[in-house]
UniProtKB/TrEMBL annotation:
Residues 25-99 are annotated as: Disordered. Residues 1-23 form the signal peptide. The keyword Signal applies. This is L,D-TPase catalytic domain-containing protein. One of its GO terms (biological process) is cell wall organization. One of its GO terms (cellular component) is extracellular region. Pathway: Cell wall biogenesis; peptidoglycan biosynthesis. The active site is at residues 245, 261. Pfam families: YkuD. Keywords: Cell shape, Cell wall biogenesis/degradation, Peptidoglycan synthesis, Signal, Transferase.
Length: 291
């Protein structure tokens, strides 16, 4: 009897064991290794933690350790090729470019004087730059950047080569002199230059200012021109509707000119007005090129 009961217990234990194994066995995974993301049914541990997918149930409770990164040796940076150092420019060279007439302008400014120290060597320097700028500002040469360009060269040459002795002064009072060839003008008193030489612009082609000796016979600090409908500041008339006055356009534009008048820069027109009066002598000689 005891033997039968023992056999029945063995059989029952075997049945229980077989049923438990069947309930816990998962279906075959698509990725047998369990690391490639293959699908599988979640076991009891997965249901408790909420984990799913192919990773183990400790994915969130115990994060996978981060892989140890081996410090790689830094790659040596390429040594840059050192360029040969350029010679340092002379003072003011960067802001005062070299012009194509540098040496000529230096020569004429040295002859004229009054604009600062210049070195006649054809090279730009701080002193040269300052002198050229001062010259350009005085004669309204634009831009006044210190560059010895064509206009600066032309004005400097005309002024430096003007011969003030060619003009015969009156025995008394002021004599205004106008060199039509050089397009310059100045004033004499007692045989001495008291103003200029400075630049002017006379009549254009078809309206050439005549050479000769005249007298100022009418003055008006601001005259209205009827035919040309423009104001003429510091007007001093000497012949045939022609006279000294302040320019109304850019004086150094040689493509145009006056209708016979003697155009002056503002500061020069004021100075001529201060020196002149009715009865002052005006001497014109030469001829404007191209007229």
């Amino acid at each position: 009897m005891r033997q039968v009961r023992f056999s029945a217990r063995v059989v029952a234990l075997a049945v229980v064991t077989l049923v438990g194994v069947g309930a816990c066995t998962p279906e075959r995974q698509a990725d047998p290794g369990g690391r490639g993301g293959g699908l599988a049914q979640a076991g009891s541990a997965e249901r408790e933690t909420g984990a799913g997918g192919s990773s183990g149930s400790d994915q969130r409770t115990r994060p996978e350790p981060k892989p140890t990164r081996t410090k790689s040796k830094p790659k040596p940076k390429p040594t840059p090729t050192k360029a040969k150092p350029k010679p340092a420019p002379k003072p003011a060279a960067a802001g005062c470019p070299l012009g194509e007439h540098q040496r000529e302008v230096e020569t004429y400014l040295a002859r004229l004087g009054g604009f600062g120290r210049v070195t006649v060597d054809g090279r730009q320097s701080a002193a040269d730059c300052a002198a050229i700028k001062k010259f350009q500002q005085r004669y309204d040469i634009r831009p006044a950047a210190g560059r010895a360009g064509p206009t600066t060269y032309d004005v400097a040459k005309r002024l430096a080569t003007t011969d003030t002795k060619r003009c015969k002064a009156a025995s008394s009072g002021t004599t205004f002199c106008i060199d039509l060839t050089h397009q310059t003008t100045w004033a004499l008193r007692g045989g001495k230059v008291v103003w200029g030489p400075t630049v002017t612009r006379t009549g254009m082609k078809g309206y050439a200012t005549p050479a000769g000796t005249f007298t100022i016979n009418y003055r008006n600090i601001k005259e209205w021109s009827d035919p040309y409908e423009v104001w003429l500041p510091y007007w001093q008339h000497f012949t045939q509707g022609m006279g000294y006055h302040q320019t109304t356009t850019y004086l150094h534009d040689k493509s145009i000119g006056s209708h016979g008048c003697v155009n002056l820069l503002p500061a020069d027109a004021l100075r001529a007005w201060e020196l002149g009066k009715v009865g002052s002598r005006v001497v014109l000689f030469g001829r404007r090129p191209g007229t």
